[in-house]
Amino acid sequence: MRRGSQPMHAPISATERSTIAQIGGRNAPIGALRAFVTLLVIAHHTVLAYTPNPPPIGDFSQAPYLWQAFPVRDPQKFELFGLLTLINDLFFMSLMFFISGLFVADGLRAKGNGGLLSGRAARLGVPFVLAAGLLAPLAYFPAWLQAGGDVSIAGFASAWLDLPSWPSGPAWFLWVLLAFGAIVTLLNLIAPGVIDALGRLVRGADRKPGLFFLGLVIASAVAYIPMSATFTFMHWTQLGPFTVQTSRVVHYFVYFLAGVAVGAAGVGQGLTDSEGKLAKRWWAWQAAPILPVVGVIAVIIMAFSPKPPPRVALDIGGGVMFALACATLSFAALATFLRFVKKTGPVAASLQANAYGMYLTHYVFTTWLAWLLLPQAWGGLAKGAAVFVGATLLSWILTMALRRLPLLGRIL
């Protein structure tokens, strides 16, 4: 294809080529999966405005501050968006932590403990500060407007600073990921060889992915059920800009450690071998999530029924179904990309190279586009599609521009 014929992907910089080279080869399926999950994140934040039965619009300055999850609520809905957000919520952040853990072992081997930590502090800490400090207030300004606030930066700033915490939006993932990396680095410092031991533990997962799957389900259920029973599945802990879903934080760490273990065994080998049993039996994993997802829906229905089962039964049953749904959905996605992605084309390469920046910036576009489309009578499906496409393209273009700046280019 001639240079310049496709402006969205033609200008691939030297930095992009370096990133693509790292992602390419045997890691091409993982790079593509990472980009796909980023698109799921954008879709998730898009369609929340059009899901059925959202919480009512409340006072911006009064608890429970539900606008943090639903910045814009459009009266035009699309019923199936509710199912999309439910399924997404069951696995996509867990899978992001798993993917993020895959390259930790290689980083430790190449850079050492100090080098890995300093590199992750720059790549995760600096964007977290920028995203939480600048992008989050910009993204939540439409929530202030829809709650009845006037078009006044001073009024919004006063209300924002009076909040009991500093909402960081999707950037919460960055600080948690940085903390997980610090914990693993500390473990490696205290007990050198522990990362390689994790790799040996999962070696052979290419031949027996079911055994790895079973271990992951058990570990995540053990991590999740006590936390969910203690805090409820909807509870979030907030301390300044540091926010995390309390019931899932240990579960997320399990997935991160699982990624570290798989990466220690070798990315492109073991579980992530494109010639392994997981990839070859990809079709079987597509059906695996059906029953667990139905089980999650059944638990939700029972929980809100006039005569719900005892709380302990809901906690255990819901926790087991969540662990199964999360693992089966994650394995289904991983198996599909291992089976079908063999190389990276120019559009996909640009998407993969810019996925991180798109994750950081997309929330501004999803909220503002949804707010701008409020007067239109297109229906929830059309609006959701328009916002998703618009937010994807705008965050993509913005990231390509930001990555041409010397400092941001190195970080992004």
Automatic annotation (TrEMBL):
Keywords: Membrane, Transmembrane, Transmembrane helix. It comes from the Bacteria. Coiled coil: none annotated. One of its GO terms (molecular function) is acyltransferase activity, transferring groups other than amino-acyl groups. Pfam families: Acyl_transf_3. Residues 32-399 form the Acyltransferase domain. InterPro entries: Acyl_transf_3_dom, Glucan_succinyl_AcylTrfase. The chain crosses the membrane at residues 32-51, 80-104, 124-145, 172-198, 210-229, 249-271, 283-304, 316-341, 353-374, 380-402. This is Acyltransferase 3 domain-containing protein. It comes from Caulobacter vibrioides (strain NA1000 / CB15N).
